[in-house]
Amino acid sequence: MDEEILKGQVKEKLSALGEVEIIVGIPSYNNAGTIGHVVRAAQTGLLKYFPARKALVVNSDGGSKDGTLEAVEQAKLDTQALLSVSHPLYPVHRLTTPYYGLPGKGSALRTLFRIAELTQARALAVVGADLRSIAPEWFELLLGPVLDREFDYVAPYYKRHKFDGTITNSIVYPLTRALYGRRVRQPIGGEFGISRRLASRLLTEEVWNTDVARYGIDIWMTTTALAENYKVCQSYLGAKIHDTKDPGSDLSGMLVQVVGSVFGLMETYDSVWCNVLGSLPAPLFGIPFEVGLEPVRINLGRMLASYQQAVRDLLPVYRSIISSPQLEDLEVAAALPDSEFALSDELWVAVIYDFALGYHRRVIDREHLVRSLTPLYLGWVASFACQAENETSAQVEERIEKLCLVFEQLKPYLINQWPLRSGEKRSAS
Amino acid sequence: MRAFWEQAILGPLRDLGRQTLASLSSLIGMLALILLGLIVGWIAKEIIYRLLRALRFDRLCDRLGVGLVVERTGLARSSSYLAGQIVQGLIILTALLAGLNALGTPLTRNLVDRFFLYLPHLLAALLVLVVGALVSRFLGRSVLIAAVNAQVPSARLLAGLTRFFVMALTVVAALDELGISRTTIIVTFAILFGGVVTAAAIALGLGARDLAHDLLQSQFRPKARPEVEDPMRHL
Question: According to the model, what pLDDT value does residue A94 have?
Fold first, then answer.
């Protein structure tokens, strides 16, 4: 397997280096403006918090052309502890645009996991090369729980603006929590800490050359860790400020990649989540301090118009996905004046569960199905934004908590409607 | 006198009797074959219908969009029933052809031969129609969803036009396969298509001159890029 992933030259360097205890991985692609800061933060963090442990910083680059590699060279503090490798960037990474994350992130992670295996590293932290708010403390928070408390997966916990990360807040977090019974607040955060045990397990999966690795790598890792009972925790990292590659203009493409991956993984792990009800908190490390946040502007009028048009024009599509009572409620909401527009938590959860069921049953083409969710999602965001307009971040967090509880309460509906494979038993408890 | 009686009267009557008997037996054979075809066809239809219903064939057809077509056109009460009816029709048709062949006349033999020569074209045309219907439905839905997501006001019209043009092409291809007035169909299609394009061009020129002007200007003389429509970070 390593012949495919690592080149001979890299393997020689690694064998010369011998065993290491910690690896910090930085996947990059055209990040010359920020990667120097990230490399310096990593090396400072390692020196400050893990001075006695042998560590290695690995930059896995996908063929940058903007001087990223030179920026890494200039930033390094210790030549022995820095390794530059390249990961293959398949044509699809260049052709499939826009892409919400880093092109070739799956290849980069595969390379980093293999290096962790070869060097017998106990812990690996992966951080984005586009981060502006990264601090040396992040490495203590991402690596410490793996090294000292034997956690396998450390998810990031960021402080975000109340209207930031709405796909995470309205679909990915509540759904993942309801399905697998663990409250991981940022399941697709991007940064993470991981044990060699889990990294090796992930390397054995046959998904590295599939769309899951290309588009849904973050949710795949989190879901695998949760569904296969690895020890999962969270670390509070403060605010995440980065050069965003989140092109809001292709929202439906983003939903296909992220929500499609969540729905796809529901099929892989249906025997697990069908037996889970309720949820437990995932341990949180670090002290949640207040931070200044970038303001997020939203265009309510555009979102409402999109929702209203979809309920009018996409009705035949929705009829094949959404149950009749829910569809009627969506139509009633679409007819309301803008000032009174609201979608209830129960309605939203039922819609998401119907979409998950429709995806599983292949009621229509799967990409069509997830793309048709876009205007409904915008309607939900508009409703959420109207209700939370004058609320504080803490109040909004309570609102999200309430939504999560509805996801959990209505889960029996999803379980009962989900056709299990023959021979499997349903015993939710 | 007796020889004359035998030759002029009884001989032809015997021949007529023999021929009538032969024709009658062929006719009875044909009727028996048709009757057998009807019975076997009905039994086959019931078996196919029940088997497909048990295998949830209707649900599969609903997913592919065939179920909706069957329902809307009123062809049959369900896709499984339609499949049964098709099998029944084919069995009856086969029995009818076999019956005609049993008559043994040059006319019926010629008819049967020509039918079997034409059958591959008929099946190919049917296949073209089925594939075309599925493609038109898929593309129509792709256009509809993309247009709604882009908030294009006439999303349904665009989707309908897409479905119409794909189906028009499909029908032309199917008729071409059947060899029905090939030239006439192609010319009709060209005139129809050209007419629609011309009408659209005139409508755009007269009714949406400003829109066309703005569109072309934005393409070839773009202004400074306005603020991104959706400034949110969704992930």
Answer: 36
How far apart, in whole angstroms, are the C-alpha atoms of residue A66 and residue A188?
27
- Residue A424: its pLDDT value, please? 54
| A326 and A267 both lie in a single domain | no
Examine the pLDDT at A23 and tell me if it is beyond 80.
yes
Q: Are residues A177 and A241 in the same domain?
A: yes
How close, in Å, is residue B228 to chain A by CA atoms? 8
CATH number for the domain that contains residue A167: 3.90.550.10
Residue B230 to residue A302, Cβ atoms within 8 A:
yes
The string of pLDDT tens digits covering residues A154-206 is: 999 998 888 888 999 999 999 999 999 999 999 998 899 999 999 999 999 88
Mark whether A405 and A364 lie in a shared domain: yes
Nearest CA in chain A to B139: A368
Range of the domain at A326: 300-416
Mean pLDDT, residues B32-60 taken together: 91
Residue A236, strand partner residues: A157
- Residue ending a domain, among A254, A285, A316, is A285
From the list A115, A279, A77, the residue with the least C-alpha distance to A185 is: A279
In a domain, A61, yes or no: yes
Query: Which residues contact residue A189 at a Cβ distance below 8 angstroms, ignoring those fewer than 6 apart?
Result: A155, A156, A157, A158, A218, A240
Do A175 and A137 lie in a common domain?
yes
Torsion sign (Cα): A350, A310, A171, A393: negative
**Would you list the domain boundaries of chain B?**
25-104
Number of domains in chain A: 2
Q: Is the domain of A153 the same as that of A214? A: yes
A254:B235 CB<8 A = yes
Q: Quick one: A279 exposed, middle or buried, by C-beta within 10 A (0-12, 13-18, 19+)?
A: buried
Is A119 in the same domain as A180? Answer: yes
pLDDT reading at A341 higher than 90: yes
Nearest CA in chain B to A305: B151
- Confidence check: pLDDT of A140 > 80: yes
Q: Which residues of B touch A164 (CB under 8 A)?
A: 232-233
Contact flag B155-A317 (C-beta cutoff 8 Å): no
ipTM value, please give it. 0.85
Which residue bears the tokens 């996905």? A321
Q: Are residues A161 and A96 in the same domain?
A: yes
Region B192-209: what's the mean pLDDT? 78
Choose among A168, A362, A372: nearest Cβ to B145: A372
User: Which of A258, A320, A375 lies at the smallest CB-CB distance from B149?
Assistant: A375
Q: What are the pLDDT digits (tens) for A347-383?
A: 999 999 999 999 998 888 999 999 999 999 999 999 9
Q: Do A188 and B155 touch (CB under 8 A)?
A: no
A367 to chain B: closest CA residue: B142
**Structure tokens belonging to residue B6:** 């035998």
* A427 part of a folded domain: no
